[in-house]
């Protein structure tokens, strides 16, 4: 499985390319002349890249980065809000279909949370406004030391509305979130790390290599365990802090562990962990269907039933009888 030749870079539009090598997907924001600013084509392309990778069970880690001088300079205001197109673009960005969790503006950040493997944002240059919110949608952020960050929406008399609500509440205290979103001030990578917004700061030019090194380390392990870890910690950080939430999280932890135990990829880890010779160590299979969105919904129903004292499996047993 490892050592495979890379797939060709697949452009989802002229704005984004995806290349997969040894189970690591590299997503490149490819509008360098505009510092990868978000026009409508870029919004659609980032969304489509996340959806495609969410459905690809062979991908074990994703790295998102920007081509050229910047990760992403935020919204291309002149393009998106041009007088002839502003109304139609605003409707496409902000309206959501029946039952949809996020609108298009939010999906470029939110959908990375739903990809069932770790997502790493490798940022450099500028990472502001909508670009910062894309990075916040990743699970890990590696920043070059010179990177400039800003919740830039304050400049336009707006609030961040591309998914920052989810990430900022997990990463920083309330006062920090309020200060950053009301001042729109620019801050550097070291301060971003001190605030909890960046996972790791590396020397200029090393952000992508550092992110890829981490991605390869993740991809060398069980894709099922990585999916379970992401599912568990997102649920844990989303949960309220009270006794009922504690019980729910402990039940979910057990349900996820049950999904992992005895599976091929878990057994492959066990064989390796017990010191079997490399020639006798089995390789990993693609990520199991147990980590699909449908399976996550089923797990939520099971946890809810257990909290209510209901035997979730009783109807199935009765039908089998």
Please, could you describe this protein's structure?
With 321 residues, the protein is of the alpha/beta class. The protein has two domains: 10-219, 2-enoyl-CoA Hydratase, Chain A, domain 1 (Alpha-Beta Complex); 223-320, no CATH class. It is 47% helix and 13% strand. The protein has 14 helices and ten strands. The protein has helices spanning 40-54, 77-80, 86-94, 104-114, 130-137, 164-171, 174-183, 189-195, 207-219, 223-238, 243-260, 264-273, 293-307, 314-320; strands spanning 10-11, 16-21, 24-29, 61-66, 119-123, 126-128, 140-144, 148-150, 187-188, 200-202. The strands form two sheets. A seven-stranded mixed beta sheet has the order 1-2-3-4-5-7-10, sandwiched between helices. Helix 1 (40-54) links the parallel strand 3 and strand 4 (61-66). The N and C termini lie far apart (42 Å).
Summarize the structure.
It contains 14 helices and ten strands.
Topology readout:
Elements: E1 10-11, E2 16-21, E3 24-29, H1 40-54, E4 61-66, H2 77-80, H3 86-94, H4 104-114, E5 119-123, E6 126-128, H5 130-137, E7 140-144, E8 148-150, H6 164-171, H7 174-183, E9 187-188, H8 189-195, E10 200-202, H9 207-219, H10 223-238, H11 243-260, H12 264-273, H13 293-307, H14 314-320
Parallel strand pairs: 3-4, 4-5, 5-7, 6-8, 7-10
Antiparallel strand pairs: 1-2, 2-3, 8-9
Helix pairs in contact: 1-4, 4-5, 10-11, 11-13
Mean pLDDT: 86
Helix-strand sequence:
EEEHEHHHEEHEEHHEHEHHHHHH
Q: What is the helical fraction, as a range of percent?
A: 40-55%
**Beta-strand share of residues:** 5-15%
CATH 2nd-level architecture of the largest domain: Alpha-Beta Complex
CATH class of the largest domain: Alpha Beta
Give Rg in angstroms.
21 Å
N-to-C span: 42 Å
**Coarse structural class:** alpha/beta
Domain unit count: 2
Number of alpha- plus pi-helical segments: 14
- Name the shape in a single word: globular
| CATH topology description of the largest domain | 2-enoyl-CoA Hydratase, Chain A, domain 1
User: Strand order across the biggest sheet?
Assistant: 1-2-3-4-5-7-10
Largest sheet: 7 strands, mixed
What is the fourth-level CATH superfamily of the largest domain? 2-enoyl-CoA Hydratase, Chain A, domain 1
For the secondary structure, the number of strands is 10
pLDDT < 50 stretches: 1-5
């Amino acid at each position: 499985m490892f050592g495979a030749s890379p797939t060709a870079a697949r452009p989802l539009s002229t704005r984004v390319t995806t290349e997969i090598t040894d189970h690591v997907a590299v997503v490149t924001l490819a509008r360098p002349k505009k510092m990868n600013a978000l026009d409508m084509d870029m919004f659609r392309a980032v969304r489509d890249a996340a959806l495609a990778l969410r459905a690809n069970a062979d991908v074990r880690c994703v790295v998102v980065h920007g081509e050229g001088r910047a990760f992403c300079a935020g919204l291309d205001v002149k393009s998106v809000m041009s007088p002839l197109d502003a109304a139609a673009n605003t409707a496409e960005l902000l309206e959501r279909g029946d039952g949809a969790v996020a609108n298009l503006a939010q999906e470029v950040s939110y959908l990375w949370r739903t990809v069932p493997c770790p997502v790493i944002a490798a940022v450099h240059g500028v990472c502001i406004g909508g670009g910062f919110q894309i990075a916040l949608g990743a699970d890990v952020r590696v920043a070059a030391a010179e990177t400039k960050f800003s919740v830039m929406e304050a400049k336009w008399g707006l609030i961040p509305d591309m998914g920052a609500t989810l990430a900022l509440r997990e990463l920083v205290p309330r006062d920090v979130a309020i200060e950053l979103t009301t001042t729109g001030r620019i801050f550097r990578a070291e301060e971003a790390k001190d605030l909890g917004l960046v996972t790791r700061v590396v020397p200029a030019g090393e952000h992508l290599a550092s992110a890829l090194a981490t991605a390869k380390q993740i991809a060398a392990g069980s894709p099922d365990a990585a999916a379970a870890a992401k599912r568990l910690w997102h649920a844990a950080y989303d949960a309220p802090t009270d006794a009922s939430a504690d019980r729910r999280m402990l039940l979910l932890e057990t349900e996820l562990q049950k999904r992992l135990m005895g599976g091929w990829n878990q057994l492959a880890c066990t064989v390796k962990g017990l010191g079997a010779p490399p020639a006798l160590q089995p390789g990993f299979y693609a990520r199991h269907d147990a980590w699909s969105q449908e399976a996550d919904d089923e797990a939520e129903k099971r946890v809810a039933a257990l909290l209510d004292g209901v035997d979730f499996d009783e109807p199935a047993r009765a039908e089998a009888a």
